[in-house]
Amino acid sequence: MPGGERLRVERRVAGSTVGYMHHGIDVGDGTVVHARPDDERNPLAGGRVERTSLTEFAGGGTVLVTTEPAAAYSPEEIVARALAHVGRAGYCPVIDNCEHFATWCATGERTSRQVDIVLSRIGGAAARVAAAVSARRILATAAAGTVERVAVRTALGTTVRLSLRTLVPAAVAGEAAALAAEWTAHQNGRSLADSRRAGEAAGLATSAVACALAGLPGGPAGMITGALAGAAVWAGGGLATRAVTAVTRGQTRS
Fold first, then answer.
1. Which of 12-16, 109-113, 229-233 is predicted with the least confidence, judged by mean pLDDT?
2. Is the dihedral of CA 208, 210, 211, 215 positive or negative?
3. Euclidean distance between the first and the last CA atom of the chain, given in angstroms as a whole number
4. Domains and their CATH numbers in the chain
5. Based on the number of CB atoms within 10 Å of its own CB, is 53 exposed (0-12), middle (13-18) or buried (19 or more)?
6. Sign of the CA dihedral with 42 first, then 44, 47, and 53 last
7. Which of 64-68, 156-160, 217-221 has the lowest mean pLDDT?
8. Which contiguous run of DSSP H or E holds residue 7?
9. Which residues partner with 19 through β-bridges?
10. Least packed by Cβ within 10 Å: which of 23, 63, 96, 108?
């Protein structure tokens, strides 16, 4: 491999089946510069930037090349930036991990898509729950008036009762499904935009299905109403979620 490329290889979180990508910079002579914890079982205990063989970096896995975000420096500059930090102490899986280091060497910005995905989805869950609470208030207000009168004519009835016990778990389940889908798409090498779309699609579907099940006693019409409510709650939290994502990404880059 030519020097200056960002390499990644799948690893497993110690004691689990959860996969993540370990990143490094290819020096071009069969060695890789990468940041890693001193103890893989305790990544919060610190670590350092090391130069190891490509074989050791791979650890038996398949080495892939990362191209996103686009490099801002030439291959020679990227290698020089990486080598200049060999031996530097300091490692944190949230704000100073291997991906932060490799991305900084290539772009000048300390970013990590893996951290962004997790933090944005955690923040998104809070935003979705807030949207669910707001939606429930609207439903409660409407149920005291016109909705009850329309229910008699449409046969939707009052059997579709989307309380917080339904809306909040649906929002959280949707965000969990979105996290899993977006994380998996990223691990499979899909672009930032494609990974995000995969997550949003999974979250929307999960939220809609969860609320549709709550409307099951009302028959097909009840399930449709529930599904639409679940989709609306997911969509309602979208703007807040994007705002949270922007904030968390800004924090991880600082």
1. 12-16
2. positive
3. 31
4. 6-111 (3.90.1720.10), 114-253 (no CATH)
5. exposed
6. positive
7. 156-160
8. strand 6-12
9. 12
10. 108
- Token pair for 155: 């046969």
Output the six-digit token pair for 35: 């940041």
Detail the DSSP E strand segments found in 110-197: none
Quickly state the pLDDT bin for 155 (edges 50, 70, 90). very low
Give 9-44 as a DSSP string.
Answer: EEEE-TTSS-EEEEEEEE-SSSEEEEEEES-TT-GG
Distance (Å, whole) CA 244 – CA 251: 11
Kindly state the percentage of the chain with pLDDT values over 90.
45
Instruction: Annotate 48-78 with DSSP letters as a single string.
Output: EEEEEEHHHHHTTS--EEE--SPPSS-HHHH
